[in-house]
Amino acid sequence: MLSEIVKLEVRSNPKLCPMVRKFVDQCGRMAGLNENDSHMLTLAVDEAFCNIIRHTYKMKIDEQVKIFISVEEKDYIEIQLFDQGTPVNPENIKGRQLNDVKPGGLGTHFINSIMDEVEFQPQVAGNILRMRKNISDPRTSTRQKIEGYRDPQLLQTLLNINQSLHSILDLDELLQTIVSKTKAIIQSEGTSVILLDEESDELFFHTTLDEDQEVVERLQTLRFPVTQGIAGRVMQTGKPILVGDVQRDPDHFRGVDEKSGGSTESLMYAPLKVRDRVIGVLSAKNKKGGFFNEEDLEVLTAIAGTVSLSIDNARAHDALQNMPNLSETMRIRKEMDSARLMHSATLPQELPDIPGLDISGICVPAHEVGGDYYDFFPLGECYAIAIGDVSGHGLEAGMMVSMAHSCLFTQIGFSSKIEDVMSSMNRVVYGAVKKRLIMTFFFSIYDPASRQWIFSNAGHPSPYHYSQQEDKWQFIEEGEFPLGVFEGHRYESYSWQLSPGDIVVLYSDGIIEASNDRRERYGFVRFEQLLSSKKTWNSAKEIQNAILGSVKSFCQMSAPSDDRTLLVIMVE
Amino acid sequence: MEIHNIPIDGGVKVVPMSDVDMTSSVDLRKVLQKLVRQKPKKLIVSLENVEYIDSSGLATLIECMQECLKYKGSFRLVISNSKIMEVFRLARLDRNVFQIYKSNEEAEK
To answer: Whole domain around residue B96: which residue ranges?
Structure first.
């Protein structure tokens, strides 16, 4: 293995930049970076060197800068820049606000984006900037996978779409809005929403927007079997497809071109998925002035992910509303049904298999649909566990839960950092609150390797934690107020170390506030008594059943007035 | 730095002949500022001969674009080098900010 340190001593003269770049690029290539990565490394070091000249030495050109590069072959390349200027307070080195396209701070943004580690150490006389770039670190690729799309403007756009769509229950209006927004973002000549007709197993173009009105009219009459065409392939696999040159793809259903009279050059298809169910396809045809690329496909897929739940909701609502001769009572009942459908679509269909954890989760919906919500999903090596509750009932609460769910999924496509997730959720709920609806939300990430559990709590009832070591049940009290109260609030995140034998119980207030016909509440005392009633619980499911059983026998005949949600997590 | 000014139909094309960094972006800025004052309808900066651009280079281009927008001129970039494009991407300037073309012909249309 190659392990080397190379040193370069230069004056703080900007004219020397090209030489510094050549030196760094050669070291980068020697360390095993490819051409592009080495170019990026060079950019980071050049920016750091220029910052020293500009800020530390205030453009004095004959001060000293030392650059040490150490290479651990196939592992990392580390660069240290030493200057002898006045020690700089690291607080004053700020990255650029990314949505703010202004010069300044951009160099720091480059350094932070390119390097895996950046550390600034002011010394007694001078400063050291230490930066490291990993060469073949699998963590880098996981991180990118988790963070997904990096464009913060796209995230804002998607969250805005998500917010505006969830209030539209009319299917035609909804799909018109979706295709026109998609077309504008993707810059396509045409955009369609293709839906599955479950009765005939055919795909049809429900809504199309195209520069050529004739294409729109012709596509409206087109139906084809779900097994055919590229759209059919997307339905079957649930994966997006980019076709650069349609005429060469054997799967291209020629009927579309013949029927539409248009000529298709480049196409993109993204599945409209509600959890694992593919309900249709969002497609885009011909990029204005060019061809679609992988990045366009990512954007289309992200849009499809954001809008699919709204489409599913509106479709269910539409089907119920369009039943003929409905009396007013029936209409209200139907509305309840669609709210219930909406609600159940947001809940996980099965429990995840998280290494070292025994998990159980359930939401017992009240007669009048409430707004409880819980979810689990993998994030790289870690797992997200979420629980929330919208204040309010019925259709509005159902729509809010649905919106929150879509927001969460859109957000984690960009960043799953807890603070970012909480901010996005807060923004969406804040913007949507017109009817005094607020939402409690507990979001956490569990790392099975270290058993570390990081969470943030926006007003949700404090979880119970059983520590086996201390042999006692206690509240995890860290947390703040519900979502949607203060615009732009940053929620804190906290870290909790779990150990084998520990138990965490998350619940909604429907458990605590469950009441019997004497209007007594189940309350925390009974809850805690039940949890401590047994020395050793055998499984998460056993605890879940015991709690639900206890609440039920306490309430006796009284029907639940609020959803009862429980998540039990046992560390094995 | 050597910078070429080439008159084109409806405006002018600026072609820096080497890397745009802390030193040379000052030269580029001077040339662009002078041109912007004449308010050409179309101002193209072709980076086809540029192998390296840093944050000061990007800042110069952003500033020039903002000036052009003020008088409703069209500011276009030609980027044919993927490494240069990568720097724009890193700065999130690759979409919705600049009008970017792959070749001089397309930009001059």
So the answer is: 3-108
Q: Are B58 and B47 in contact (CB under 8 A)?
A: no
Any chain A CB within 8 A of the CB of B48?
A: no
Reference A345, options A296, A297, A403, A284; nearest CA is A403
Per DSSP, the three-state class of A482 is coil
Instruction: Measure CB to CB from residue B55 to each of A106, A152, A153 and give the nearest one.
Output: A106
Name the DSSP class of A14: G
Contact B21, B14 (CB under 8 A): no
Buried/exposed B12-43: b ≥16 CB within 10 Å, e otherwise: bbbbbeebbbbbbbeebbebbeebbeeebebb
> Domain A3-136: what homologous superfamily?
Histidine kinase-like ATPase, C-terminal domain (3.30.565.10)
Maximum alpha-carbon separation in chain B:
32
State in Å, rounded, how far the first CA of chain A is from the last one: 40
Contact check, Cβ <8 Å, A46/B54: yes
A39/B55 Cβ within 8 A: no
pLDDT tops 70 at residue A142: no
Report the pLDDT value the prediction gives residue A435, as an integer from 0 to 100: 54
pLDDT tens digit sequence for A397-409: 777 888 888 889 8
Residues of B whose CB is below 8 A from A103: 55-56, 58-60, 62-63
DSSP conformation class of A414: T
Q: What does the pLDDT read at residue A245?
A: 62
Q: What is the ipTM of this complex?
A: 0.87
Tell if the CB–CB gap between A39 and B83 is shorter than 8 Å: yes
Q: Return the percentage of chain A with pLDDT > 90, whole number.
A: 38
Q: What is the pLDDT of residues B55-67, one digit of tens each?
A: 889 888 988 887 8
B19 part of contact set with chain A, CB < 8 Å:
yes
Least confident of A39-48, A263-272, B44-53: A263-272
Mean local confidence (pLDDT), A410-438: 80
Which chain A residue's Cα is nearest to B102? Answer: A290
Closest CA to A24 of A111, A127, A94: A111
Chain B residues whose CB is inside 8 A of the A39 CB are 52, 83, 86
Taking CB atoms and an 8 Å limit, are B86 and A50 in contact across chains?
no
Query: For residue A438, what pLDDT band results from cuts at 50, 70 and 90?
Result: confident
Residue B8, pLDDT score: 95
Domain boundaries, chain A: 3-136, 168-319, 346-571
Q: Look up residue B71 and give its two tokens.
A: 């008088």
| Domain at A168-319, CATH from 3.30.450.40, 3.90.226.10, 3.10.150.10, 3.40.640.10 | 3.30.450.40
**Inter-chain contact A36–B82, Cβ cutoff 8 Å?**
yes
Cross-chain CB nearest to A21 (options B52, B60, B97)? B52
Domain count, chain B: 1
At the top level of CATH, the class of A346-571 is alpha beta
Q: Which residue has the higher pLDDT, A162 or B29?
A: B29
CATH code of the domain covering residue B34: 3.30.750.24
CB contact under 8 A, A109 and B83: no
